[in-house]
Amino acid sequence: MESPASSNLFELQVDHNATVYLRDAARWAKFLAVAGFVFCALFVVVAILALTLLSSLFNSMGVSGSGLGTMGGGFVAIVYSGIAVLNFFPCLYLYNFAARMQLALRNNDQEQLTASFRNMRAFYRYVGVLMILCLGLFLLSIAVLVISTAARPMP
User: Fold this and answer.
1) What pLDDT, on a 0 to 100 scale, did the predictor assign at position 144?
2) What pLDDT was estimated at residue 95?
C-alpha cells in the first residue's frame, strides 16, 4: 500500500493561482537576468578601461619603466573580467528559467516547465556553491588576519 504523501507527489497540478505566481516570478526573473547581463557588460567595459587607462595614467606619471601601470591595470582587468564571468552564468540560468517558464505557461507544455525548473535548480546550486566559496574565503582571511596579528612581535 502506498503512503498518501508519495501518491500525492505525482498528482501535483499547477492551478490558476500557482500559474499567476509563476508568471509573475518569471517576469521578475527575466528583468533581473537582463539587468545582470547589463552589469556583466559594464564590468567588462570597466575592465577594458582599467587596462588602458591605468597604464596610460602610470605612463604619464613617469612610472612606465617599472611596469606598474600594465601590471596594475592588468590585475584590475582580470578581477573585473572574473567578476563578469562569475555573474554571467547565474544570469543565464535565471534568464533560461524565465523564458522557459513563460513558454511553458503560454503553451501548457510540461517539458518546458520541467526545463524551467531545471534551470532554476542550476541557478540556486550555482549561487549556493558561490556563497559557500565566498564564506570559506572570508573565514580563511579572518584566520590569516588573526594568526598574522598574533604572530607579530609586541613593541
Assistant:
1) 95
2) 98
* Side chain identity, residue 61: M
Rounded Cα distance, 132 and 137, in Å: 9
Sorted by sequence, the CB contacts under 8 Å of residue 83 that are 6+ apart come out as: 43
Burial of 14 from C-beta contacts in 10 A (0-12 / 13-18 / 19+): middle
For 101-154, write each residue's pLDDT tens digit: 999 999 999 999 999 999 999 999 999 999 999 999 999 999 999 999 988 887
Distance CA 105, CA 97 (A): 12
- For residue 43, the number of C-alpha atoms closer than 13 Å in the C-beta half-sphere is 18
CA distance 33 to 143: 35
User: What's the residue count for the chain?
Assistant: 155
Alpha helix (H) ranges present in the chain? 4-9, 16-61, 68-107, 110-151
Distance CA(35)–CA(41), nearest Å, equals 10
Whole-angstrom CA distances from 14 to 3, 7, 21, 23, 98 are: 22, 16, 10, 12, 16
CB distance 73 to 85 below 8 Å: no
